[in-house]
Amino acid sequence: MADIVVAVDGPAGSGKSSVSKAAALRLDFNFLDTGAAYRALAWYVIERGVEAGDPRAVVDILPDWDYHIGVDPDTYAVHVGETDVTEAIREPRISGVVSSVARVPKVRSHVNDMFRDIMRRAPKDGIIVEGRDITTVVAPDAPVRILLTAAEEVRMARRSAELTTENAGDVAAQLRKRDAADSRVVDFMTAADGVVTVDSTTLDFDQTVDAVLDVIARQT
Ligand code: C5P
């Protein structure tokens, strides 16, 4: 059971996954990427030939969705059944439908129960959990809660640089669309009471990791 839960929220392209993972490695903590769970469900929805925009059909297949995510930042991998989907869930076809799946309330309560169970079983002293509603819904009592932000143009530029094979304009448009859809479901752009904002607009990767580690050190 992890004693220290560090909740990190933020929009797409804020660097929260890579920063949270790097911080977890530095602290020898576990790490949970909750977006990967929603992506793995979107992958399964497509695999089963279900219409992602049909909430009832998505909820119907939830009991069959056999999902495993590693919480060790060194060996992080995501599986659905026996299939390793770690790479596949990053494909644009998944990013394009994940918001439709994630906005279904029964999906959210199902995955939130899973996340809390994973947090309870995490073997290391601490776990960094990152997503969109961790500071507010999944772990509102976490001793450390951080909102990781960056100016929109910086987030778009970072994400486009990651996906070199794609058209940067398309990436920015898809990211904007996804942020708009997601923010209708949860507010991840403003810090809730007691949540510390780390703005990475003018920070490089290492500086952002240091800023997050600094907040953790001050609050634990
Ligand atoms: O963080 P990432 O971009 O991989 O998240 C993929 C999607 O999962 C988001 O666009 C959002 O629809 C959903 N998500 C969510 N709540 C979370 C984490 C992710 O709704 N806590």
Automatic annotation (TrEMBL):
It holds the Pfam family Cytidylate_kin. Its main location: cytoplasm. Residues 6-216 form the Cytidylate kinase domain. It catalyses: dCMP + ATP = dCDP + ADP; CMP + ATP = CDP + ADP. It is found in: Cytoplasm. Keywords: ATP-binding, Cytoplasm, Kinase, Nucleotide-binding, Transferase. Its EC number is 2.7.4.25. Gene3D superfamilies: P-loop containing nucleotide triphosphate hydrolases (3.40.50.300). One of its GO terms (cellular component) is cytoplasm. One of its GO terms (biological process) is pyrimidine nucleotide metabolic process. It comes from the Bacteria. InterPro entries: Cytidylate_kin (IPR003136), Cytidylate_kinase_dom (IPR011994), P-loop_NTPase (IPR027417). ATP binds at residues 10-18. One of its GO terms (molecular function) is dCMP kinase activity. NCBIfam families: cmk. Belongs to the cytidylate kinase family. Type 1 subfamily. This is Cytidylate kinase.
